[in-house]
Specification:
Elements lengths: L6 H17 L3 E3 L20 E3 L20 E3 L20 E3 L20 E3 L20 E3 L10 H4 L6 E3 L19 E3 L19 E3 L21 E3 L7 H6 L3 E2 L19 H5 L24 H16 L4
Parallel strand pairs: 1-2, 2-3, 3-4, 4-5, 5-6, 6-7, 7-8, 8-9, 9-10, 10-11
Helix pairs in contact: 1-5
Protein name: Putative leucine-rich repeat-containing protein
GO cellular component, one term: cytoplasm
Keywords: Leucine-rich repeat, Repeat
Length: about 325
């Protein structure tokens, strides 16, 4: 039997939506409510900017979600979406999307329509290819597609001038395509793939942090490490690098700091060296500063029921006359 949201989950989610309507809130956090459908009154909040629907049971999105004409941040990770929701292509104001941990299998070429997109997370989605049209997203700063079945990186993505954070850890990539346009990538994670030799990275002058651990690297000329002096970190976990090269090239690391960050906040605000180097093993979104939590409403909402939500209970449950 399919898992269903409890009556209290439905009531709580409706309370949050009603509160957003009443207080003109720009953020709604409905994470982890076991929702299998989106309440349609949610789509009537025209001023909504940030919507968190992660950790639910959604298999599709209603067409009414296109009414959220100002939406910028949308979290849909950890749901049951078996395809990229086509209706998202109409939300051209979107800046950040997280679709990780959904069995999508494919990203449509029409994603190029989302010209305001800066952050796209599609980790653990079972996709086998990245459409070259991602390279037409002129504002895309961060792309995370780890733990999928990708075998090839389109040249157009590597040539995307705005892209600074690219993680493709845990795929089936054997080599990088040749690209002519100067890339601006700062953080590149290609660990847990199928590289037999270290790819040519010397043309990416902006690159500072590169992860290549757990690749079957067998074709290595250690003298070529001099080509990577512009890096702050070249991580080569499970590779026996001679001690003299570790001394000569301090950017070489053979330990395993090999986990990824995929929070929407990673590239927000001013950049720092620590932000670009550090990685965290999560695809969760930090909602600790969400508007709905600033006065303990989500944790103590039962205290509000008797005074505020009795009419809503009557409407949903039909048990109060």
């Amino acid at each position: 039997m399919a898992e269903e949201p409890s009556f209290l989950d439905i009531l709580h989610s409706q309370a949050i939506i009603e509160r957003a309507h009443l207080e003109l809130r720009s953020t709604v956090n409905l994470s982890n409510f076991k929702l299998n459908t989106i309440p349609l009154n949610l789509t009537q909040i025209k001023f909504l900017l940030n919507l968190y629907l992660d950790k639910n049971l959604l298999q599709s999105l209603p067409v009414e979600i296109a009414q959220l004409e100002n939406l910028e941040v949308l979290a849909l990770d950890y749901n049951k979406l078996n395809e990229f929701p086509p209706i998202l292509l109409l939300l051209t104001t979107l800046v950040k999307i997280n679709l990780s941990y959904n069995p999508l299998k494919e990203i449509p070429s029409q994603i190029k329509e989302l010209q305001n997109l800066e952050v796209l997370w599609i980790n653990n989605t079972q996709i086998s290819r990245l459409p070259p049209e991602i390279g037409q997203l002129s504002k895309l700063d961060t792309l995370g597609a780890r733990c999928n079945n990708i075998e090839f990186i389109p040249r157009e993505i590597l040539e995307l001038g705005s892209l600074r954070w690219l993680t493709l850890r845990g795929n089936k990539i054997k080599c990088l395509p040749e690209f002519t346009t100067i890339s601006n990538i700062i953080h590149l994670n290609l660990s847990h793939n199928l590289f037999e030799e270290i790819p040519s990275l010397s043309s990416i002058k902006t690159l500072k942090y590169c992860y290549l651990g757990d690749n079957p690297l067998v074709k290595i000329d250690y003298k070529d490490f001099c080509r990577f002096k512009h890096l702050k970190l070249l991580q080569l976990h499970k590779l026996n690098v001679p001690e003299e090269y570790l001394m000569e090239y301090p950017f070489l690391k053979i330990n395993d700091p090999d986990v990824e960050v995929s929070t929407f906040e990673q590239t927000d605000n001013e950049d720092s060296e620590e932000d670009w180097a550090d990685s965290l093993d999560t695809s969760d979104i930090n909602t600790s500063e969400g508007e709905d939590e600033d006065d303990g409403f989500n944790n103590n909402w039962n205290n509000h029921i008797a005074m505020t939500w009795l009419p809503l209970i009557a409407k949903l449950g039909g048990c109060i006359k």
